[in-house]
Amino acid sequence: MEGRATASTPAALPYYVAFSQLLGLTLVAMTGAWLGLYRGGIAWESDLQFNVHPLCMAIGLIFLQGDALLVYRVFRNEAKRTTKVLHGLLHVFALIIALVGLVAVFDYHRKKGYADLYSLHSWCGILVFVLYFVQWLVGFSFFLFPGASFSLRSRYRASHVFFGATIFLLSVGTALLGLKEALLFKLGRAKYSLFEPEGVLANVLGLLLACFGGVVLYILTRPDWKRPSQAEEQALSMDFKTLTEGDSPSSQ
């Protein structure tokens, strides 16, 4: 039996994907270094519980969310169902890790008697988490759960892609707000303006966050880098639509 035809990978795409992973892993490592060097490390049952929050958000809502968005660009020739499952699972892992980060900061505030949800960072953070959860829930219902009709999936697909990129961008912006807030709380404007080592490291971390977000969004918005539709997927889709009102293999 003849092998399945595969689409060629754009020459520059692997380099951009590799660069995005280098940026993402570096920002996660630098977040850990910042917390270890200047914030005492991480522990759940101590004053260091708060530090769980920024690390979890960097891993979940930044790195893993970005990688989940890139799945359809990286896995160009794998079965569409397999790619969907991987896309959904990465988002699940990101949600779980982000939830741990939220529990950590609320529990820390409760123990210390601090107020909750008064800052712009906290408002944006709750908005991002709620939108992310709703986006995943609706995406699962439309694209993985077999009950949604072919026409509904086709109409919602563009909105799903748009809101996915928007929520990722909001996540990066919220992380930058939180980073700035953490620096001002500890260093104050006077020390921060004197190029304290922690402030310099955190500024570099902020640049990594912005660069990672920019590279991921650039990869997503290149139309010639979208996952191509496979011929057999097109044929199966038409049969499935006729029989069950199933999914279409249109590129994401």
UniProtKB/TrEMBL annotation:
<feature type="transmembrane region" description="Helical">
    <location>
        <begin position="57"/>
        <end position="75"/>
    </location>
</feature>
<dbReference type="InterPro" id="IPR006593">
    <property type="entry name" value="Cyt_b561/ferric_Rdtase_TM"/>
</dbReference>
<keyword id="KW-0479">Metal-binding</keyword>
<feature type="transmembrane region" description="Helical">
    <location>
        <begin position="160"/>
        <end position="179"/>
    </location>
</feature>
<keyword id="KW-0472">Membrane</keyword>
<keyword id="KW-0249">Electron transport</keyword>
<dbReference type="GO" id="GO:0046872">
    <property type="term" value="F:metal ion binding"/>
</dbReference>
<dbReference type="Pfam" id="PF03188">
    <property type="entry name" value="Cytochrom_B561"/>
</dbReference>
<dbReference type="GO" id="GO:0042584">
    <property type="term" value="C:chromaffin granule membrane"/>
</dbReference>
<keyword id="KW-1133">Transmembrane helix</keyword>
<feature type="transmembrane region" description="Helical">
    <location>
        <begin position="199"/>
        <end position="220"/>
    </location>
</feature>
<feature type="transmembrane region" description="Helical">
    <location>
        <begin position="12"/>
        <end position="37"/>
    </location>
</feature>
<keyword id="KW-0349">Heme</keyword>
<feature type="transmembrane region" description="Helical">
    <location>
        <begin position="87"/>
        <end position="106"/>
    </location>
</feature>
<dbReference type="InterPro" id="IPR043205">
    <property type="entry name" value="CYB561/CYBRD1-like"/>
</dbReference>
<keyword id="KW-0968">Cytoplasmic vesicle</keyword>
<keyword id="KW-0813">Transport</keyword>
<protein>
    <recommendedName>
        <fullName>Transmembrane ascorbate-dependent reductase CYB561</fullName>
    </recommendedName>
</protein>
<dbReference type="GO" id="GO:0016491">
    <property type="term" value="F:oxidoreductase activity"/>
</dbReference>
<feature type="domain" description="Cytochrome b561">
    <location>
        <begin position="19"/>
        <end position="221"/>
    </location>
</feature>
<dbReference type="GO" id="GO:0005765">
    <property type="term" value="C:lysosomal membrane"/>
</dbReference>
<comment type="function">
    <text>Transmembrane reductase that uses ascorbate as an electron donor in the cytoplasm and transfers electrons across membranes to reduce monodehydro-L-ascorbate radical in the lumen of secretory vesicles. It is therefore involved the regeneration and homeostasis within secretory vesicles of ascorbate which in turn provides reducing equivalents needed to support the activity of intravesicular enzymes.</text>
</comment>
<keyword id="KW-0812">Transmembrane</keyword>
<feature type="transmembrane region" description="Helical">
    <location>
        <begin position="126"/>
        <end position="148"/>
    </location>
</feature>
<keyword id="KW-0408">Iron</keyword>
<keyword id="KW-1278">Translocase</keyword>
